[in-house]
Design brief:
Distance between the termini: 53 Å
Radius of gyration: 17 Å
Structural class: mainly alpha
Number of helices: 8
Helix content: over 70%
Order of helices and strands: HHHHHHHH
Number of strands: 0
Strand content: under 5%
Length: 180
């Protein structure tokens, strides 16, 4: 292996590619690939999380306001991630074969991860008991289908969680409402 290859192998970009390749390889199992593709479709534009929030608002009348605020925060996190994506313009991984079609060409941050993390943070208990594992699976699915680097997913999740926390704090100050 040449000097440049050694440097790339140890660099953050090299680690990102190696982790993606390792996780993506698990998608050879048709059950894993099928589940990851289903999560990818359900997560487009945060639809899964927005539907969960609206369903929570309908079913859980006692916490209707919290579910509605959480849905708004989740939508906001998705929009913020799309804005960052348009500025950064990082291309999607080219070294693995994607298992799904994507609506955009840019990879950083993962909007699927942003909306998933925002939902996990903003919906809170009791919704979080089901949402946190599903949000984690959504994040991992982006690697299995080969459309994001791990750093894209980590950044998207951090951005989504931060957006939900900042938005919830702002909502509490602006409206005097309880925890979102």
């Amino acid at each position: 292996m040449g000097h440049l290859d050694d440097m790339d192998h140890r660099s953050l970009a090299g680690v990102d590619r190696r982790i993606l390749s390792a996780v993506h390889s698990h998608g050879r199992d048709p059950r894993v690939a099928g589940a990851a593709r289903a999560l990818s479709r359900a997560g487009e534009h945060g639809v899964l999380w927005l539907a969960a929030g609206l369903a929570g608002a309908v079913v859980d009348g006692r916490r209707r306001g919290a579910w509605t605020r959480g849905t708004a925060l989740t939508a906001g996190a998705h929009l913020v991630s799309m804005g960052v994506k348009r500025v950064v313009r990082r291309p999607r991984p080219a070294h693995v074969e994607p298992r799904v079609r994507t609506l955009g060409r840019h990879s950083f941050p993962s909007s699927h991860a942003a909306s998933a993390a925002a939902a996990a943070v903003s919906f809170g208990a009791p919704g979080a008991y089901a949402i946190v594992p599903l949000a984690t699976a959504m994040c991992l699915s982006r690697l299995v289908v080969g459309v994001h680097y791990p750093s894209d997913v980590a950044a998207g999740a951090a951005l989504g969680a931060l957006t939900a926390c900042v938005g919830a704090s702002w909502m509490r100050r602006a409206g005097g409402h309880g925890h979102a």
